[in-house]
Specification:
Helices cover 35% and strands 19% of the residues. It is built from 7 helices and 7 strands; from the N terminus they run ααααβαβαββαβββ. Helix 6 links the parallel strand 2 and strand 3. The longest helix is centred in the N-terminal third of the chain and has 20 residues.
């Protein structure tokens, strides 16, 4: 929790309490339905929560903005971002039912009213969003195909509407087909060794009606 406050010092009391409660909720639910590895659950705040919030260091979401988290798994990056941006609408999507069950319970336990949870393949979602976030669920080319037609036309943020993707390692080859992609190294924002090879990739997506 000190980690979160180190990088996000202006949290409200409600947000502080929600971030504290995350660990209890995930540890409890992970015993029933394994969504986070044992090693990762012990380092939940650095490997999952702070990693998810790396997206917030590249772009703050505005009140009323719509963000979809594709392949949310246990709720990352969507749940930490929804705590940080309570006036932004988040739609967390995953095709695996047991993972979505955990996300529903965590959402309920944290009383997050700005989160909608759907058990479905992303291709079946018929809506549009300012940003689509995810944590390395597929190669960028595949991901872009999945989210076709789901990015809203009008950009209201500093960054253009599109994808904000948490990725690690050398992305040169993967992003060679996407010259408009910008890579933000998380080591620029976070001191911990874990973030040395971690990045946020922003890929603007043109609206196709």
């Amino acid at each position: 929790m000190e980690l979160i406050e180190k990088y996000f010092p202006n949290l409200s009391e409600t947000q502080q309490e929600q971030f504290r409660l995350l660990e209890t909720l995930y540890k409890d639910w992970n015993l029933k339905i394994n969504v986070v590895s044992r090693k990762d659950i012990d380092e939940l705040y650095i490997r999952h929560v702070l990693h998810s919030l790396g997206i917030a260091k590249t772009q703050s979401f505005l009140p009323g903005a719509k963000v979809m988290d594709v392949g949310t798994g246990g709720g990352f990056p969507g749940i930490p971002l929804a705590i940080l941006f309570p006036e932004t609408q988040f739609h967390l999507v995953d095709s695996i039912g047991k993972k979505i069950k955990v996300v529903e319970e965590v959402k309920s336990g944290l009383e997050l009213e700005n989160v909608k949870v759907t058990n479905a393949r992303v291709e079946t979602i018929n809506d549009q969003y300012d940003f689509i976030v995810s944590r390395a669920v597929a190669q960028m080319e595949t991901f872009v195909h999945w989210i076709k037609g789901k990015v809203a036309k009008k950009s209201k943020h500093e960054l253009k509407n599109g994808i904000l993707y948490l990725k690690g390692g050398d992305l040169t080859e993967e992003l060679s087909a996407f010259p408009k992609a910008t890579v933000y190294p998380l080591a620029n924002y976070f001191d911990e060794d874990f973030f040395e090879t971690k990045t946020v990739v922003h890929l603007p997506i043109k609206f196709r009606g």
